[in-house]
Amino acid sequence: MADRQTRTPRQQDRTPAEELLEELGPVDRYHDYESLGDFGMPARAMTDDLLSGMTRPGRFGPLEKVHAFWFAGASCDGCSVAVTGGTTPSLESMLLGAHPGIPRIALHHPVLNVESGAHYLRAAEQAVLGELDAPYVVILEGSIMDEVAAWRAGGYWSAQGEEPWGPDGELRPVSATEWIARLAPKAAAMIAIGTCATWGGVPAAEGNPTGAMSLMDFLGKDYRSVLGVPVVNVPGCPPIGDNFNETVAAVLYFLQGFGPLPEFDELGRPAWLFGETVHRRCVRGAYYEEGVFAEEFGDPECLVEIGCWGPVVNCNITSRGMINHVGGCMNAGGACIGCTMPGFPDKFTPFYKRPPGSLASTTASRMVGSLIRPLRKFSNNNLNREVRWDRQGASPSAFSREKSEPSALADVGHRFYDKVRRANDTGRNDADVWGKRDEAPAGGSPNPRV
Ligand code: SF4
Ligand code: SF4
Predict the structure, then answer these.
(1) What percent of the chain has pLDDT over 90?
(2) Domain extents in the chain
(3) What pTM value is reported for the model?
(4) Which cofactors does it use (predicted)?
(5) Per-residue pLDDT at 249
(6) Whose CA is closest to atom 8 on ligand 1?
(7) Of the four, 92, 302, 383, 445, which is 20 to 30 A from 419 by CA?
(8) pLDDT value at position 426?
(9) Under a CB-based contact definition with an 8 Å cutoff, are residues 417 and 382 in contact?
(10) Closest ligand to Cα 337
(11) DSSP-derived pairing of the beta strands 172-175 and 159-163
């Protein structure tokens, strides 16, 4: 391990991961599990042992399980919350091996596992040593901070456990960043969850003192897993849990030999999830098209003039919802602040201010909408009437509210519209429409026209 006083200078030609490992040096001591006893194992068993006894037999493919190491960098744990709320597929179904085409996941999560301390780190140690009993993927939530600078200053930013890697075998905190650097070379896949891990996110915003960066930036643009897979990125702050669970399931189908490598875009995002903008599936999109805009939160119209960036943001929350296909920003009244994007947050601040570029499109929408809205209202009034009512020139009342008959001008307009609408209708004939002859209704029409 390099002496902090004789450190090497920082170089541009190494990836940050290579630089960190060079700074820290190799490791060769590990915990003595015989001497630990049950300390840190209140259940007297490891999580993997408990769950493996509950899994379903009859799985297809060569892999019985795949280990998933979950690390947290500069994170709020929102990604963990999002993933545990996923339903398609649910985390618990993957932990229990309930999907025959994918291997069971042996999850190592600092919050969810029942073992703690050194026992919790046992599988990660075996992975570093290349002695793990199954392939593994590494998942990072939160951004990677500059642990080289912290190490040189005598501290660390974010650690996960202790290992006897200090001078003379002393225990020292091991940063999540160090675990990532040591595990990445032998991983089957490296997966970044949430915008902090995928692009740096809030911890990397202007003014931060941590040097926070994304997993992709940390491992370098040429990183490939042992299976040749670049870093997989599932952004969002927090991400949609189902986006992540579905992506993991798709990667596992690939590892099991039951599916192709899922399609990822040039930024490593699942292409089928991030190919569309928020705006294209927004529940308020028609208001934008008709040039009607909210003036304050709580209004039902399009939110662009009070700060929505949806037209230029890649995110599927408007079609998928947040949890179990329910909720999501615009569905719940919130404007898009671009939380899935590599430019978040610096390129979207100040939040809740109109994006300057929207002025041209909203002006055009207002102009077109001022013409389209009355015409649609005109047709809407007509379509809210049965054909029978038109022919009888009368409509029933409902809930004691009289529905007025269309004006003469509207009547002419609708007849003209009907002629245009049916101009190419090859099914037309001159016979009466069955059941809609011009008889008076039972009890008499309130205003018979025929
Ligand atoms: S609220 Fe945002 S995403 Fe929805 S229509 Fe308006 S601008 Fe588009
Ligand atoms: S709609 Fe915008 S703010 Fe909401 S989750 Fe998607 S990117 Fe984030």
Answers:
(1) 75
(2) 4-272, 276-384, 392-424+436-450
(3) 0.89
(4) [4Fe-4S] cluster
(5) 95
(6) 279
(7) 445
(8) 75
(9) yes
(10) 2
(11) antiparallel
